[in-house]
């Protein structure tokens, strides 16, 4: 890439202060957008979903683990290689210590349309402690449009039907699994769906990108170019050039 222009400290200061104005505008816009998201109406979940975890069958209510809020990441499973998607794995690697979320009465869980034995094997390989459930045999992934099969439900991804997806060259999302994030709120034993996002929506959870966005070289890699973290060749992993 072309390097930034070399300038004096005074000229750098002027450029930095001009950018700071835009950064503050973006921060205020983000705060306003977050407020609108929190104010979205919600839909009560009246369907019984039966998922499977390490301790056996679990309901959606069980996934809250006693907390008020639940974030479910619909994790893509690569059925051809029987392992987790690299992009989804990159996101989970960025989750950090869940005790910070728990202190805010919020749980995070992963759900995949895959056999539990495969999920557990991969979770142990990755060293993750995030609760992870299988939705095999359940409509859960289909109802929240993270999986598509016309024989099960009408095709929809990122709030677009099959025709809209095909018109945008996004046929990939018309069948099989996609990634998504869904948010739920609990009031006693009543569960409500408040939010779902797809495509680049969950990108806000990729803290590696948040760090890199502050650097001159930027992101450097598309999300699907990051390997599983146990596949790095450590000596070659550095991004600097000699």
How is the secondary structure organized here?
Layout: H1 9-38, E1 43-44, E2 51-53, E3 56-58, H2 60-63, E4 69-74, E5 77-78, E6 83-84, H3 86-93, H4 99-102, E7 106-112, H5 116-126, E8 132-134, H6 140-143, E9 147-148, E10 156-157, E11 160-161, H7 162-167, E12 176-177, E13 180-187, E14 190-198, H8 207-212
Parallel strand pairs: 4-7, 7-8
Antiparallel strand pairs: 1-14, 2-3, 4-13, 5-6, 9-12, 10-11, 13-14
Q: Can you offer a commentary on this structure?
A:
The protein is built from 8 helices and 14 strands. The strands form 5 sheets. It has a 6-stranded mixed β-sheet with strand order 1-14-13-4-7-8. It has a two-stranded antiparallel ribbon with strand order 2-3. Strands 5-6 form a two-stranded antiparallel sheet. Strand 2 (51-53) and strand 3 (56-58) form a beta hairpin. It has 242 residues and is an alpha+beta fold. Mean pLDDT is 94; it is low at 236-242. The chain has a domain at 43-204: Glutaredoxin (3-Layer(aba) Sandwich).
Q: How many helical stretches?
A: 8
Radius of gyration: 20 Å
Tally of strands = 14
**What can be said about the biggest beta sheet?**
6 strands, mixed
Largest sheet, spatial ordering of strands: 1-14-13-4-7-8
Q: Say what oligomer this is.
A: single chain
Low-confidence runs: 236-242
CATH class of the domain at 43-204: Alpha Beta
Which strand-content bin applies to the residues? 15-25%
How much helix is in the residues? Answer: 25-40%
Mean pLDDT: 94
* CATH fold name of the domain at 43-204: Glutaredoxin
Question: What best-fitting shape do the alpha-carbon axes yield?
Answer: globular
CATH architecture of the domain at 43-204: 3-Layer(aba) Sandwich
Distance between the termini: 15 Å
CATH superfamily of the domain at 43-204: Glutaredoxin
Structural class: alpha+beta
Element order: H for helix, E for strand:
HEEEHEEEHHEHEHEEEHEEEH
